[in-house]
């Protein structure tokens, strides 16, 4: 043995140790990611472990086809493990929402890593074997380091790496370790390598790539989280009040406010026709109409189908929202440019404060606020707010309130109904099915009688007499129930809403 | 306040008040708190030091102006303003109110910049039906909007404290309500339950004179000794004697007493302690019995209503420094510290609506040994303007947010009653009675602290619940109240001093202030203002002097 060959085992045994540690870490990362993104951790972990071990078997099997330039191959494999293992978690995070076949890509990457890791140890053993070490000694040393590395990995992973670095950064970190092993071997045995130039080039490339990934992993994560919407994001903006996100898949456009779906262009006509038209059929000569919320202009679009409507006042706090739906071509197509109609007056003001000081009477009021999921919004569903509305509603006028889902949140729904009644309104509850939302409820309210004054417009896609008759029927699982009145000093609706949605979320 | 506080002479007082204004520790902050009520906005805003110096000159100044008025009210806190309010209602217009500070309101003082926020008192529990004068006042001012078929008052829904009203931070989590209920033992929970039911029993208890054992106004309470004897022991002793030993319960009761009286469970008399829990018998058509009325500016809202029709009767920046009877009338020497001129008022009737502790200084010729029993607690109030911040786990941000075993009493969200969805800045009012030592020592300590020191004290406390709050803070203003509240210590409420102090002097000088009740709350100040007005009105209309000219104008 020459001077150099004496060094081989120590360096290479250290490689075994690192390779084993990295290999197990990749397996753990994959398992964690799979259960994190897809749920069902028992199946995911089980499949990942099985697949990974099986792939290692394939790698080991393939190792017999490697006869020459073993050190070159070892470095090559090492670099591949580092690259694939290092980027796996960020790739999986980023593609999670944009591909249908996520799990196949996951399994593919796992198999690839498994195969490479499976090649490493047999290759090393071959190298050592050629260096005239006793077979017993090789087996004993290699497996000792292999299993010690595995133990270290499995302990450090949950205790140190996941809490301190997170999955993406851990992944890059171990990719870099693999690359460092390759670089070390490359440096020490440069003379013995046939493809050293190519390998140097590759090693440096992988090292730089993974290091950049490690440094910018926070950015990758936040970008990846932005893609937790199901479809492609075509617009995103944070207004002073909310995060506005538009997505598109095919021709279907969805609007999210603070991650809550507001509409899907595919079926929003159902929601908005049901919101606007029943109200209008009961309103005697509706000329002046008030919309609270509804900055997307869809309700205005429905209102403009009535020639009698002369003036529409829309109160929406968020100017970014109303401007978007006035200017963006794709969106003005959706609302048929309704917000730019000369009949429409848009006021970006706070609804409660505006109502309190308003002196104008309206023939119809459409209330399209977000669901009462916090105490600020809960105020806009209180008896006090509804009482203020009576000062803004013409004596024969009507109100409609979007009132969350009577199926998902029956108590919340009937609480809105009860609260309207508590300030002297007669109510007419009804609900329709909107596929993107589920079964959705509205409440009509008036101080008068509900008597039909006009027919539904003919060109509607969803609402007509028969559909409306049906919508007034509440099956047993959403039947009316006793609730308290929602007041500013009890905010009971927010409590109902939280309890009911907590059950299904 | 120690005995030494009151034993100095008037001359010494006048001389020393200059120093007091410069930051003396003589416990005269209420008097000198005119501009010295240390409002800090990133720094200690200097007191109007000149007043003290010039006051000494005032005595040697010639009288610049002499005024004749029938009635003079000294002090524009709630009791003084209420007295004026009832004088006006009785058709009396010949009166003036003198206020030392440049603004009115006493403990109902509020701040107003981008937001409105209280500097002290900030809520009124819905009053008992028996408190007729207060109910009438609220109805007259549309805080009671009507009465239902059971004659129960219907309150303005914008004034009833919105839900969620109270939350308590215990071990990393905000629970709903202030009574500790998380992470406590069953035995402790049972004790809390028993304690509360005992308090409820006191709520409905009546004495042998058929009066409520505990009620508001306090003067309507029974004089049955089986209840009044409770004034002879401390609340702590009473609780121990009744086997109420649970630590969370003691914390809670102590918290309540500090909050309402600025005295600890060990200092407060058991009668006063039970009064806190048992005196409120409010009933409403649209509120729970224990609901409270509140506004962004706290009781400043009520104060403005009491004051609104008499603003032209009020003169601010006036220090009344000598009151004496002369030739059948009362002569009041006044120093106008704005114009630095001395004025004299010759009046028929004086309504004294400032704390009793000032009597030895303003009326040194009167015997007033009993004044030593009147002691007052010092407070620090911080108004903190913030951007929205992470409000923590558990119950959502509420009106009153208290940290269990915190250093202060927690904070009130002063913008809680705002209706807007768009609240980009929050206003927190943080309260802390200074009770580590006796009041006099605490006043000494408080006056020398820097803004930085107060700020870090407040932040240290708030960070227990909101570790990152500092990043969101825009401004912290601090105000010190030297004599914020009368202290209902053992024996005070049913002792003799309180009765002595209420006696009018020669039917010419009458007293009105919440300290006469021993409990510093709006209702008591209002009651004393109304009572003293009755006396004065009766003197004016039925007295032997000729008041025919009285309706004036």
Automatic annotation (TrEMBL), chain A:
EC number: 2.5.1.16
All copies of domain PABS, residue ranges: 198-447
One MF annotation (Gene Ontology) recorded for this entry: thermospermine synthase activity
Annotated keywords: Cell membrane, Membrane, Polyamine biosynthesis, Spermidine biosynthesis, Transferase, Transmembrane, Transmembrane helix
Pathway(s) annotated for this protein in UniProt: Amine and polyamine biosynthesis; spermidine biosynthesis; spermidine from putrescine: step 1/1
Stored CDD domains: AdoMet_MTases
Predominant place of localization: membrane
GO biological process, one term: spermidine biosynthetic process
Residues binding S-methyl-5'-thioadenosine, per UniProt: 242, 316, 350-351
Catalytic residues in the record: 368 (proton acceptor)
UniProt GO cellular component terms: plasma membrane
Function comment: Catalyzes the irreversible transfer of a propylamine group from the amino donor S-adenosylmethioninamine (decarboxy-AdoMet) to putrescine (1,4-diaminobutane) to yield spermidine.
Family statement drawn from the similarity comment of this UniProt entry: Belongs to the spermidine/spermine synthase family.
Protein name: Polyamine aminopropyltransferase
Organism annotation: Emticicia aquatilis
Automatic annotation (TrEMBL), chain B:
Protein name per UniProt: Amino oxidase
One Pfam family named in its UniProt record: NAD_binding_8
Gene3D superfamilies for this protein: FAD/NAD(P)-binding domain (3.50.50.60)
InterPro entries: FAD/NAD-bd_sf, Zeta_carotene_desat/Oxidored
Superkingdom, natural source: Bacteria
GO molecular function: oxidoreductase activity
